[in-house]
Amino acid sequence: MPELMQFILSGVTVGAVYALVALGFTIIYNASDVVNFAQGEFVMLGGMFTVFSFEAGIPLPLAAAIAILATAAIGVALNKLAIEPARGAPVVSLIIITIGASILIRGLTQIAFDKQLHRFPAFSGDTPIQIMGATVLPQSVWVIAGALAVFVGLWLFFTRTLTGRAVLATANNRIAAQLVGINTRYVMTLSFALSAAIGALAGVLVTPITLTGYDIGIALALKGFAAAMLGGMGNPKGALVGGLLLGVIEALTAGYLSSQYKDAAAFVIILAVLFAMPQGLFGRQATDRV
Amino acid sequence: MRLHTTTALTTLALGFNLAAPAMADIRIGATLSETGPAAFLGDPEAKTLKLLVDEINAAGGVNGEKIELIVYDDGGDPNKARTFATRLVEDDEVVAVIGGTTTGTSMAVLQVFEDAEIPFISLAGAIEIIDPVRPFTFKTPHTDRMACAKIFEDMKARGLTKIGMISGSDGFGASMHKQCLQIVGDYGIEVIADETYGPSDADMTPQLTNIKGREGVQAVLNAGFGQGPAIVTRNYQQLAVGLPLYQSHGVASDGFIELAGAPAAEGIRLPGTALLVAKLLPENDPQRPVVTAYKASYEAATGKPVSTFGGYAHDALRILVDAINRAGKAEPQAIRDAIEATSGLVGTTGVVTMSEEDHLGLDLSAFRMLEIKDGGWKLVE
């Protein structure tokens, strides 16, 4: 019994990381139908900026804030310099641009910082918390709480605010959105800023657990993307559930079956879900009103 | 970019030579992974080679001739490494080559040098590079089989006979896992739990929970490098496993203690090189002057702490220079014969004595058993 509890707790911790990355995917996808494969790099940048500001003597909360703002600025720059000039290009081309951007960011990070792994101290110590015979680190609680808070924030943003609805309207039909007075360029800029900020926040929260280095973004983007597909691309609820589910499946496979099959099992289940429900668990049905 | 720099530097070097009195250069080539996934290995290696070549040239060169170093960055890609290898042989006409940061790149290039009959000193770990022995291929780092042997010796001395293993599923972890399983029986030790983790995994508590739950486990051995071992160490403390934990030589650096956190790393044992514990070595230790000198000049030149990997490059160049000195001429065949006759050469990794059957030339004394104590290193004797 304590084993099961341990597997689930570690699955939820890792799953919350995936969920945060998936939530970042959600926003840009909602605004532009583009899957931003530089999302993992935002997570990496969040961690790296915090590490280097912290090591330069800036207090941790301030370092985290700097990291989030700086990453958001890079997100905006990515949109202004790479995505906006290519407006009108097919979605696939835009996705390829984001892959290129992720490689560029990784390269620049190597030069600007270094190639080593880094870590900064956990927010509230390293003393494990006991839950029903299993243990969890306080930082895991921060990560899970962070994922939930971002989820609630996004859900309110998309359903309760005019700007959030404008994002959805832009995604649905850019020209129609422009005709009703939505500044779609602003919406795109905002989406990239927000998505980069969420990625950076994820980086800040997880670095004490997972460490950070210039190349951690690829694996995170892949798992986050899988989580988003599982839950349904573009839906915050889907991103959260997909992420947690993916984490728990991995942990249970590693615990009960074999750690060799951990990644394989997760992807087999995702494929099975996508065969049965191509939109993912919570995906929107693509309908066109004529 | 890299290529342009190299060309520019070569041109520059040639220019200087024209100005100086005519003197033949000893051209030594290198293909290293300065960028890419193995950059943290290749980067200190390249810096070390450049630093040492400058030092040697400033001191008058080898047999009165200057060394000209030609370094290519293969980015860890075996295909690129092979292209550079051909170029080193055909265009640059080098007399010897150092390199192959990873096992993959080393295995990809060694046949090129065997065919061209040019001595090649690899900086990668796998035993396959020198076993079976090939006439022109040598290497400096000890093998993972030796690391396993060193660890099992220590376990045996402590009376630990039933152990759990957790290994990274990357090349390093998988290879060491295989080597350890091959020789574990010789020490009367049994592996009763065997788990793996992916190189970029963020959490290993499920695997460690299983090892902890296995009846009779007395110690745990983690074969891996990179972020994995640091996370394993932190999870190990989180779960309060409470058994002795051994790590591999893949994490033998100060960075590991920092990443894992001193409280979690306390009491961990691992095999490391003399370079890591330069200050702790006894005064009469033959390696002491070599490692302290290298450490001092590397750290002064780069501002970064030395790493074991840079030490591999240091030893490779020393072996080469020593061989050219003894051969009295810089010709590939003569250098090869001299390298094979290397005897008692003190490097950072160990004391090298090569032979026709042994192109590595190190024994288990090259590894020091270390324990992490109070956030630093301690020699286990």
Provide an overview of this structure.
The complex is a heterodimer of chains A (290) and B (381). Chain A is mainly alpha-helical. Chain A has one domain: ABC transporter involved in vitamin B12 uptake, BtuC (Orthogonal Bundle), CATH 1.10.3470. Chain A has a two-stranded antiparallel ribbon with strand order 1-2. In chain A, strand 1 and strand 2 form a beta hairpin. Chain A is globular and about 60 Å long. Chain B is α/β, with parallel strands linked by helices and 381 residues long. Chain B folds into two domains: 198 residues, 3-Layer(aba) Sandwich (Rossmann fold), CATH 3.40.50; 128 residues, Rossmann fold (3-Layer(aba) Sandwich), CATH 3.40.50. Chain B is built from 13 helices and 14 strands. Chain B has a five-stranded parallel sheet, with helices on both faces. A four-stranded parallel sheet of chain B has the order 7-6-8-9. The longest helix of chain B is centred in the N-terminal third of the chain and has 20 residues. Chain B is globular, with a radius of gyration of 21 Å. About 2% of the residues of chain B have low confidence. The interface between A and B is large, with 37 and 35 residues.
Provide key terms for this protein.
heterodimer, A: 290 residues, mainly alpha, ABC transporter involved in vitamin B12 uptake, BtuC, two-stranded antiparallel ribbon, 11 helices, B: 381 residues, alpha/beta, Rossmann fold, five-stranded parallel beta sheet, 13 helices, 14 strands, transport (chain A)
Compact summary:
Chain A is mainly α.
Instruction: Extract low-pLDDT stretches of chain B.
Output: 14-22
* Helix-and-strand structural type of chain A: mainly alpha
Task: Give the end-to-end Cα distance of chain A, rounded to a whole number of Å.
Answer: 55 Å
Greatest interface: A-B, 37 and 35 residues
Largest sheet of chain B: 5 strands, parallel
Q: Give the neighbour order of strands across the main sheet of chain A.
A: 1-2
CATH fold topology of chain A: ABC transporter involved in vitamin B12 uptake, BtuC
